[in-house]
Amino acid sequence: MKPMLEAINVNTNSSLKVETYNSTTNCESAGWHIHPEYELVCIKNGSGLLNIGSEKRHYGNGVLVFLGGDIPHADFGNKDNEDNLEVVIQFKKEFLEDKLKVFPELIKIKELIEKSRQVLIFDEHTKESLWPLFKRFDKMDNQGKLVNLLSILDQLSKHGVYERLFDTISISNYKKNEIRRLEETFEYVNNNFHKNISIQEIATRLGFTPNSFCRFFKKMTHQTFISFVNEFRIAKAVEFFNENNTVIAEVMYKSGFNDPSYFTRQFKKYQDTTPSSYLKSKYSDQLKG
């Protein structure tokens, strides 16, 4: 079965996306999926399965794994223990190609990132020694997260003990041109979600007719383009709410919606609650009236 292409929502003011999940907020399963971003995952404890490419590998007491972009995989986490935490860090290839290359001192980190295309599984000692750095992410601002990631990558590149899951570079079953077009689509939505999204514009940009673009997108992601845009916008709305934005109308417009009732329906569809209920549960002590 071909993996679903997943869009990773990296903030425009950040080079990476960091999510921390506990036993009650496990990462929502994306099933068998693929994305162009690099992914570094550290799971504190518990047992689970690494299902990556053609390989399956069980782990028994948490795991630290680093995989390059465009490698099919399933979710890694588990719900064995109440104190378990899973930290997922994702960053685009531009992080390596555009940013790290300007610092020759980071050559070991660049080499480590390039090796991740073979998928690196680190030993338990490496995971345990770096866990204190991973669990700090949840309380950091964007600058702190970047510095912390570089510190982790520095330690991994110098002292990390790992095995390669694949002997050779993992190659996606997707054609490079298909992946390029999906990346452009994701980037277009990321840059224009707050505006009117034009299927005609993105289709023309990619060399499709509107109908052929919609068929292509559905084949690659297993969902319609409109559904993807709505889900992306709702994720942005949640992001805005979490940044202490408590005016629903303002968040609605900032995330690209114009109709309050449609915004409420889509929010409930993807968050299983209404915007007002979400705000009440998050800011019950701050909201007035």
List keywords for this structure.
289 residues; alpha+beta; Jelly Rolls; Arc Repressor Mutant, subunit A; 2 domains; 11 helices; globular
Give the termini separation: 51 Å
Widest β-sheet, arrangement of strands? 2-8-4-7-9-10
The fold-level CATH name of the largest domain is Jelly Rolls
In percent, how much strand structure appears in the residues? Answer: 15-25%
**Overall CATH architecture of the largest domain:** Sandwich
Overall helicity: 40-55%
Number of helices: 11
- For the record, the count of structural domains works out to 2
List the helices and strands in order: EEEEEEEEHHEHHEHHHHHHH
- The top level CATH class name of the largest domain: Mainly Beta
**What is the CATH superfamily classification of the largest domain?**
Jelly Rolls
Shape: globular
Uncertain regions: pLDDT < 50 for 5+ in a row?
none
Average of the residue pLDDT scores:
86
Largest sheet data: 6 strands, antiparallel
Structural class computed from helices and strand pairing: alpha+beta
Number of strands: 10
The radius of gyration is: 20 Å
Structural description of this entry:
This is Helix-turn-helix transcriptional regulator. InterPro entries: Homeodomain-like_sf, HTH_AraC, RmlC-like_jellyroll, RmlC_Cupin_sf, Tscrpt_reg_AraC-type_HTH. It comes from Flagellimonas hymeniacidonis. Keywords: DNA-binding, Transcription, Transcription regulation. 44% of the residues lie in helices and 16% in strands. The protein contains 11 helices and 10 strands. With 289 residues, the chain is of the alpha+beta class. The chain is globular, with a radius of gyration of 20 Å. Helix 6 (199-206) crosses helix 7. A 6-stranded antiparallel beta sheet has the order 2-8-4-7-9-10. It folds into 2 domains: 4-164, Jelly Rolls (Sandwich), CATH 2.60.120; 176-282, Homeodomain-like (Arc Repressor Mutant, subunit A), CATH 1.10.10.60.
